[in-house]
Amino acid sequence: MHLYIHVPFCARRCSYCDFAIAVRREVPSARFAELIEREWAGWQTHAAWEDSPGLDTIYFGGGTPSRLDPGAITRLLHGFRTDRSVTPGAEITLEANPDDVTPANAEAWLAAGVNRISLGAQSFDPAVLEWMHRTHDAAQIGLAMRTLRSAGFSDISLDLIYAVPPALDRDWAADMEQALALEPTHLSLYGLTIEPATPLGKWTARGESISLDDDHAAAEYLAAHDRLVASGFEHYEVSNAGRPGHRARHNSAYWRRAPFIGLGPSAHSGFASTRRWNVRDWTEYSRRAEAGKSLMLEEEALDREQVDLEALYLGLRTSDGLAAARVPGEIANRWSSSSWAVVDDSRVVLTPEGWLRLDALVASLSRC
Known about the structure:
By secondary structure, the chain is α/β, with parallel strands linked by helices. Strands 9-10-8-7-6-5-4-1-11 form a 9-stranded mixed beta sheet, sandwiched between helices. The protein has a 3-stranded antiparallel beta sheet with strand order 12-13-14, with no helix packed on it. Helix 1 runs parallel beside helix 2 and helix 2 packs parallel to helix 3. The longest helix is centred in the middle third of the chain and has 17 residues.
């Protein structure tokens, strides 16, 4: 079993963010921990534990989990370990903003059992960080990395966003070089997307922001792939690359369709063909939790066709690919001749060029 905890609190909403967040000057850490404990208690009799009695990974995502009081992290991890066995050496990840990384916080996170940090850098360009409404500056990224290493963290991932509007004149190659110079063990690369309800969506609708065209966005993605591979990283999933032995085990569980529980507002859970998710808004989540009401917003059961499609999509987004038998020979040959996939007798694995066309390629398979 894999456990995700959604921490919605942020100091500010980023310009591109469409996640379930709650902007708070003061974070209600103790209250949050109490409500997560209540939800966790309700999961202890779920039938999914019969096949997966312990926890292999734990992931604090958000939002900004690093804004929680470290005592809340300690409290929650203690509770999880009390109720369920945690695999020795389990990956326990905390997402953090650079400006939240202090020596005291880093030491407390490590003492609580966190052993992996995912640091939301996004860019090293001051103008881009300001445009994104980030709360840190470029210098704080390097300082955070040094602070984490001094505290004892050896597994640190950096997030970067590519394909920002051309008007920002961002030097993507320079951002990559600065990220690699900090020697992270893992990098996540996310293409900027425009969601209608976000500040970026509104700027775009008013013509105040013009997106980078698809060809240039693809060029940035492929340049990042080449640079990462040249630096010894394994580009093992569409958006993720790690040094050998440092793949994100929690996210990899999703791509294998392993069972997972999500706690907190908007958190998703999945077991075999069942998917369920919580109410999105923190205020509504806390109101329901305190009243002892269901936190689930919706639940769905995937049919066989949907399960197969999900397996195709998740398989093709990783460097493991699909068994050759899952892809008709004519399609596999077309992908190979177009340099979208590497095909042999046993596997079909998309290339980075293929990953850029992932949705269309999966759609072509689903029509077969």
